[in-house]
Amino acid sequence: MKLLRFQSSGRNGWAVCHPATGAWHGCTQGAPAYPGDVDQLLREGRTALDGAAATMARQPVVDLAAVQLLAPVARPAKIICVGLNYRDHTAESGFVQPAYPTLFARFNSSVIPHGAPLLHSPLSDSLDFEGELVAVIGTGGSRITREDALSHVLGYSVFNDASVREYQFKTPQWTMGKNFDGTGAFGPCLVTADELPPGARGLQLETRLNGQTVQSANTDDMVFDIESLIVTISEAITLEAGDLIVAGTPAGIGHAREPRLYMKPGDTCEVEIERIGLLRNPVQSQHASAPRPSEPAIA
């Protein structure tokens, strides 16, 4: 299943992709057939989501060009990111490859959907791109075994963990530079795990800046695979349905280049992962940006 969330005429909705035609079918809140919000259905479990998706598949076609896309999950309880998870990126960053995953948090206030502008802050010119695979947790748990780890994954999507490098490296903790408003692009859709290889292995990942390829790697190159990350995180942190694990970026970042290649207003950044989708975002000055779509509270 492929699903995406959108906003039309001030109402949030979602849609599923017809596997034969590629058309998206769905509706918005308030429609008689609306089966509930994605976040709530995630908490209710895969059976509830599958039933709702079957209902959505019978709804009218949604013209994606006429709606505004939203992040596939509205309010993840946790966004856990992984640093230094590709050896070539670790080397270009000047670090020794760690034997234990380097984890840090993103906050939902930084997240934007496909098509929304990545915000270039007036505080720094060091906005950098990081194309990444993201795993969406479907079934929560703690102390999860490696054998069971992938059964806790609902699906996968694409993330651009855009980072303000000047602020990332002001201190040993990366939190500030990784959480500027409007810097975490997520989408455009969620692809359930049954449509992809186990652990989303063997998929090509590419980041392009203004059409020029700047990162190219395979998810097989990750040091810590999705199973390992779930095991490690859940040893100490209980995972919940809707949580995101953003699994790290490969080499090619702008900060490691000479001269450095940072994103600037007027640029367009794309992250594409084979069989999952293409995430595209313009870069815009924070002062000139329009507000992102509102997300009503979810009970």
Automatic annotation (TrEMBL):
<dbReference type="GO" id="GO:0019752">
    <property type="term" value="P:carboxylic acid metabolic process"/>
</dbReference>
<keyword id="KW-0479">Metal-binding</keyword>
<comment type="similarity">
    <text>Belongs to the FAH family.</text>
</comment>
<dbReference type="GO" id="GO:0046872">
    <property type="term" value="F:metal ion binding"/>
</dbReference>
<dbReference type="InterPro" id="IPR036663">
    <property type="entry name" value="Fumarylacetoacetase_C_sf"/>
</dbReference>
<dbReference type="InterPro" id="IPR011234">
    <property type="entry name" value="Fumarylacetoacetase-like_C"/>
</dbReference>
<dbReference type="GO" id="GO:0016853">
    <property type="term" value="F:isomerase activity"/>
</dbReference>
<dbReference type="InterPro" id="IPR051121">
    <property type="entry name" value="FAH"/>
</dbReference>
<protein>
    <submittedName>
        <fullName>2-keto-4-pentenoate hydratase/2-oxohepta-3-ene-1,7-dioic acid hydratase in catechol pathway</fullName>
    </submittedName>
</protein>
<dbReference type="GO" id="GO:0016787">
    <property type="term" value="F:hydrolase activity"/>
</dbReference>
<dbReference type="Pfam" id="PF01557">
    <property type="entry name" value="FAA_hydrolase"/>
</dbReference>
<keyword id="KW-0378">Hydrolase</keyword>
<feature type="domain" description="Fumarylacetoacetase-like C-terminal">
    <location>
        <begin position="78"/>
        <end position="284"/>
    </location>
</feature>
